[in-house]
Structures are given as structure tokens and as C-alpha cells.
Structure prediction request, 290 residues.
Amino acid sequence: MIVFGGSASTGLAAEVAEALGCEQGRAAVKTFPDGELFVKIESRVEKGDEALVVQSTSRPQNRNIMELLFLLDALQEMGARTAAIIPYYGYGRQDRAFEEGEAVSSKVVARHIQLSAERVLTINPHKEHILHYFDIPASSADAAPAIGRYFKEKGLERPLVVAPDAGSKALAQTVAETLGCRCGNCQKRRLGPGRVVTSAEGLELSGETVIIVDDIIDSGGTIVEASKALKAGGAGPIHVACIHPVLTGNAAQRILDHARELVATNTIDSEYSRISVAPLIAEAVRKWNL
Ligand code: R5P
Prediction:
């Protein structure tokens, strides 16, 4: 098996290769003056070899998607059996047409990936049903227990794990189970992109340490509003964790104005990515028979 890393996931691909004890593939990726991409596989690939391509389709999404497609296609043309490991699945939030006429972007992306991959693995997709947009075996792995273990090692005293909205309840529940502590959720209403109102009603707060857990942090609006509501309701120190640190603009700084800590996994590389999903990916891949 050979593990190739796209530009968005070079470090993670190296970790995955090491965890699996297999070769790291080499590929040249260049950008022409007009912005078009050029990809060439430089490692020796034999017919029937198993090749994994690790590439998050994070910002710049369109470029990273094209690079993933080119890597997979080039490998398939060389006779490899290919699998796409997409730690962060971009366009995952457009998981359905919310209004008539909208493109279901996550489905469009899936349809293209499966043209040159035999299998797909992603980490905590925003909605699990996007896996059904693939006609090839597609699965996800859950990084929430790894977040729980991170805080366990920190030794936080009886924290309360809180989801900033109902959509992240299951995630917060898994983190709380790993920590053996209480769990709850805020209620969020979205007013527009990056604009939300949040209430912490129903949560019993009396100065305890709170860990807010979400799948994605993008503008930071969801976490900032949850932090404010929790503080107003009587919460103590706030720690923030997410799976996918999209962190657009000054999101991290906005959050750190309200929280002691911001931590994330490395599905997207960031200065807050202190929890590696490489062991999780390696564990899933070991179970495959490509
Ligand atoms: C929404 O349903 C997601 O789970 C996140 O809460 C959301 O994407 C975060 O976005 P932002 O950081 O822009 O509020």
C-alpha cells in the first residue's frame, strides 16, 4: 500500500503512512500561470497496488477537490486500486436542497470522486447521509472519543460538555461518555451566514468548567454566542473543541476572547490542531480489503 498526500493534508498523510507502516507516495503538483493544476505521480506504482490519497477538501475547496480528482485518476490510470481519504469533506453542509433549485453540492462532489476511487473514508461528515451519495463503499470514522481523551489527559475537574446546538448533541454525548461527565446542549437559531442567537436555558450551571464541542468551527459565531449564553447562565471557565477547524478570518481570536482554550483535530491543519486523526484513519484502513 502507498499513501499519497494532497497539498491540504501532507502532514496527516505522512502520519497515516507511518501508522500503517507503508510507503509514502511522491507526486508533483504544480499550478500553471492561469491557475490550472498539473499533477504527476512520481512514485513507482504497479498494476494492482493499493493507493490511498489523503486530501481534505477544505479551503481552497475547489482547488483541493480538483487536486484530489487528478491524483486519484492518475493512480487509477497506472493500474492502482484507489481509495480517497477525505478527513474534512468540504461542501458537506450543503447536504440537501434546502430550497427548490439549490444544487446539492456534497452530492455533486461525491459523484465525481467515485469516478476514480474504489472506496471513501471521511471523518465526522456534517451529516452522515452524504455517504449515501456515493455508489462505492463509503464510511466515516468518529474523532469525538479522541477529543474526550485529550481533555481526560488534561485532568479537567468534573467538566460539563455542551453542544452549541441540537445538531452537535451526539458529538458532545460521545465526548462526555469518554470523560465520564455530564452533557447538555444550547439552542441555536440561525439568522444568516455567521449570525446566530443562542440560549443556554435548561442547563444547570454553577461555575463548573465547560467544554463546548462542535463538528465545524467556521466564522466562530456559533461558539461565541454559545460562550456568551453559557457565561450569562453561570458557567465557569470555557474550553472549546471541534473536529474540523475551518476557522475563517479571525474566528479563533473571537473565540479566545471568551474561552481559555481552543483545540481541534488535524482534519484541517491549523495552529489549534493538537489531536491527530491518523490513528483513526489507520485503524479504519486496516479493516479494508481493497
Ligand atoms: C452547523 O450546523 C455546524 O455544526 C456548525 O455549528 C457551524 O458550521 C459553525 O459555523 P460558524 O462557526 O460559522 O458559526
About this structure: Residues 144-266 form a domain with the Rossmann fold fold (CATH 3.40.50.2020). Residues 61-77 form the longest helix (17 residues). The longest strand covers residues 210-217.
